[in-house]
Amino acid sequence: MPEGDGDETAVLPALADLGFTVRWAAWDDPDAGFASADLVVLRAAWDYPPRREEFLGWCETVPVLSNPATVVRWNTDKAYLVELLDSGVPTVPSTLVEPGEQVRWPGRPFVVKPTVGAGSRGVAKFAAGGPDAEAHLRALHEDGLTALVQPYQSSVDTQGEIALVFFGGVYSHAFTKSVQLGSEVDTAGLYLEESLAAAVPAPQVRAVAEDALDAACTLLGILRAELLYARADLVRGDDGRPLVLELELTEPSLGFRQADPGAPLRFASAVRQQLA
């Protein structure tokens, strides 16, 4: 989205107050002049899934990118969820199904999604052992995509998800979000519309999000401060424990419209920290 999704309206003035000159540009614009920028910040690059290798190749040409290209490569494939699980982070159970592989469907409602995707595109929910899941899996595989199979967390229907946002590795704010699978996409066809609201995370939710961020940085061999932004999406499991659904380190909406007025200022300070 060449001028973002509208969430950063208050961010640009906050950056200007610190002396930054800011402009939007499409990542695939050959005349954008990214190499001359002090810092390039990935925001609403939601068209990358079918062009992931091209997008990653572009990321690697940008001298100063936030978040860095190595982070983008790791985080744009949801196989990272298995790595978080293996690291001991409470995470929604996730099974990878490569093209040509078979899978034993969960004995409860479950979700099938592509490991490379954005904005809930290609995500579908099925009843236990539902026959329609085979067709959906086959369609993903025919497109050359690896699938991720996860048991559906029923709390999504009543509580939705909670997203915790970090700037420079430091917690900033949180918001809840809910979306009905199968609902309509936006007019550009990039994402499903969501209902968003400000939230205060429970202590155990905050702890799991912090653990997920620590684990990711350990796996990537970086410090938390090296991440300009991060968003941890959590849901409640059947036993009420918080589980990581996704850890967004590439181009997530950051919920500025749901946050307190200080959030854009914290983001601007994190940008300054990156350049320092």
Topology diagram in text:
Layout: H1 11-17, E1 40-41, H2 52-59, E2 65-66, H3 69-75, H4 80-86, E3 95-97, E4 110-114, E5 124-126, H5 132-142, E6 147-151, H6 155-158, E7 161-167, E8 170-178, E9 195-199, H7 203-220, E10 229-236, E11 242-248, H8 263-275
Parallel strand pairs: 1-2
Antiparallel strand pairs: 3-6, 4-5, 4-6, 7-8, 7-10, 8-9, 10-11
Helix pairs in contact: 1-8
CATH architecture of the largest domain: 2-Layer Sandwich
Structural class: alpha+beta
| Low-confidence runs | 183-192
How are the strands of the largest sheet arranged? 9-8-7-10-11
Shape: globular
Mean pLDDT: 91
Helical amount: 25-40%
Number of helices: 8
CATH fold node name of the largest domain = D-amino Acid Aminotransferase, Chain A, domain 1
- Listing every helix as H and every strand as E from the N terminus to the C terminus, the arrangement reads HEHEHHEEEHEHEEEHEEH
Major β-sheet, in short? 5 strands, antiparallel
Termini gap: 28 Å
The CATH superfamily of the largest domain appears as ATP-grasp fold, B domain
Can you identify the CATH class of the largest domain? Alpha Beta
Domain ATP-grasp: 81-276
Protein name: ATP-grasp domain-containing protein
Keywords: ATP-binding, Nucleotide-binding
InterPro entries: ATP-grasp, DcsG_Biosynth_Enzyme
